Amino acid sequence: MFHPTPTAQPLPFDHMYSGMGARETAAAIELNDAAVVQFDQLLHEIHADAPRVDTDRLEQLAAWLLKLPTQQAREVIESRLERVRELRALLDDEDWDGDEATHARIGKLLSYIDREDDLIADRIPVLGQLDDVLLIELAWPAFADEAEDYRDFIAYRDVNHPDGAADERRAAWVRERLNEVALWQHAMWVREQHYAPWNLPRGLFRVA
Questions:
Q1: In terms of Cα–Cα distance, which of 7, 105, 119, 107 is closest to 48?
Q2: pLDDT in tens, 133-188
Q3: How far is 10 from 113, CA to CA, in rounded Å?
Q4: Cβ distance 18 to 57 under 8 Å?
Q5: pTM of the entire predicted model
Q6: 105 Cβ partners below 8 Å, 6+ apart?
Q7: How many CB atoms lie within 10 A of CB 5?
Q8: 62 close to 54: Cβ distance less than 8 angstroms
Q9: What is the per-residue DSSP string for 69-100?
Q10: Burial (Cβ within 10 Å: 0-12, 13-18, ≥19) of residue 104
C-alpha cells in the first residue's frame, strides 16, 4: 500500500528492523524506552496506520543520519521542517476551512514539535530534531491530501486574486477545479468516441 511522504525521498525507516542488535552500533543519543512508547502512541493517535516505532529502529535511523555528509543530513531535516511551516500556514489561513479532524491531528503534531521536553533534545547536534522529522514523515499520510489541496489553493489565490470574503474565495477555487475536472472528463469522453456510430451496418460504405 502506498503512503505519501512529505518529500520525494522517504526516510529509510521501513527498511530498518527491530531486534537486530541495533544498540551495538547505536548513535550517540540516549533513548528512554518508555518515552519511545509514548512517542509511538502519539504517532498512532495522529495516523493509526503508521509503522511502529521502537528504540532499535530509531537508533538505526540515527546511525544512518550520522553517516550522511553534514549538508545532506541538514537537508533531510530541513526539507521535512518546511512541510511543518506549510501546516502552520494552513491552520492560520482564514480562507481555509478544511476538515476539523485533520486539523486536530495537525495540531497534535505541531504541539509535539513545539515541545522542549520531547524524545530527543533539540540541542543535540544533527540528531536533535530527528524525532520531529520522523513524526512528520510517518504521520504525513493523515493530512497529505489536505496539504496538497491547500498548496493548490494558495497557487490559485496568488495567480487569480479572487474577490469576496474568505468563504467566497475558497468557493471560487472549488468552482475552478470542478470546471477543470468537467473539461477533462469531456475530453476523455470525446477521445473514446468514434466519428461514426459503432453499430452502423458493416457494408454501408464501400470503395468501388
A1: 105
A2: 999 999 999 999 999 999 999 999 999 988 888 888 888 888 888 876 666 665 66
A3: 19
A4: yes
A5: 0.78
A6: 45, 46, 47, 139, 142, 143
A7: 17
A8: no
A9: -HHHHHHHHHHHHHHHHHHHHHHH-TT----H
A10: exposed
